[in-house]
Design goal:
By secondary structure, this protein is of the alpha+beta class. It contains two helices and five strands; from the N terminus they run ββββαβα. The N and C termini lie far apart (about 50 Å).
Length: about 100
Amino acid sequence: MTELRFTDEKDASRYTLHRGDDLVSVLDYNDDGRTVAMTRAYTIPTFRGKGYAGELVDRAVAHLEAEGGRQVIPVCWYVADWFDLHPDRAGILRQRSTA
């Protein structure tokens, strides 16, 4: 299997996942320095159904955990569902205010 490559394209506010030379999945975000709102996960149609979006979210969360200092807001439904399936990673989520 071809190796997957994760990148943080800060200028474009997106994380990407490539398989070889092919872009397979994109995760758009807005980073204000305190929080990272993950706004849209998208997999190129010909690569759907292979788990690439989940792998991309996993790598993006690991990247943010390693950097520290920011919390995630899962705006995109896919990212929210991913966190529901990975409750062990919920420590990076911004807690909703109850006020």
